[in-house]
Amino acid sequence: MTKMKAVGLYQYLSISEQESLIDLEVEKPTATGSDVLVKVQAISVNPVDTKVRKPKDKIEETAKILGWDVAGVVEEVGPDCTLFQKGDEVYYAGTITRPGGNSEYHLVDERIVGHKPKSINFAEAAAMPLTALTAYEGLFVRLGVSKEDNSGKSILLIGAAGGVGSIAIQLAKWAGLTVIGTASRPESSKLVQDRGADAVINHHQPFLPQLKEAGFEEVDYIFCLNHTDQHWDHMAEAIKPQGKICSIFETNKPLNLYPLFQKSATFVWEFMFTRSRFETPDMIEQHHILNEMANLIDSKTIETTVNQVMSPINAENIRKAHAELEAGTAIGKIVLEHFC
Questions:
Q1: Would you state the pLDDT for residue 162?
Q2: β-bridge partners, 182
């Protein structure tokens, strides 16, 4: 039995606790079916990691391994694989229903894996998959934004300085939308502007007065990347008749959809793990999206959003990354590379 290094947990604890994430040695898996076995070169940390890890009364008998952003090299392919071969450089977000990528080797279904962009390194690539898939699906699948003619159309991105927002700004500009981003601090406002937003407003204040001051009576699309409950009333007020709102943040209470009724406005969720969790017939679309994003990165249309790289990949450093995310101070993506 071959062992590999990993970082995981048995108990769900505050990140200040040493046992919240621990260094492990676990069995190295083998590729079967349509799985590829990837030698992990770099990972990044996302809010979903901290949500899964948050304190709860539950003890795992088998270590739970987190991590849903990976860049690496294909070590082995299952007998049903047709998309990849040994030695291919790849990047992907994986699925919430299987062990995560915070391990030296990782099994993943090839249908949700993309070819790594050639022009960037593994750390830069590891910053991209989950946020790129979320931004792309939110804009072009859930909101139905056209990739061709969006002249005169606008989108409001709430929480635009985060990982998803940093990609969504660039994709929305690529599609020809006028982009208004929200931010609340000088440094996050600068990042939103640097990524290409046409205007920036503060999400701690009512949206519509700020939009009007910036020259927008209403917006065609709203993509909420921050607390849905907190912003719901302002979103309903700011959306145009027949406009569309998408959110990636779950709510603590039922939403009052009535304000959208007379506007015939649409509300839709985006959950990046839907396709892989339910193994939908179009699951392979994530393979295609990641390949398209790689082409956009290689053509310099989209820039990677890595902001901080830590080494090595171990429990101590991943705890630091979780703590920074939970503090709400992270800008861009935190990446870890190299197992020692």
A1: 87
A2: 201
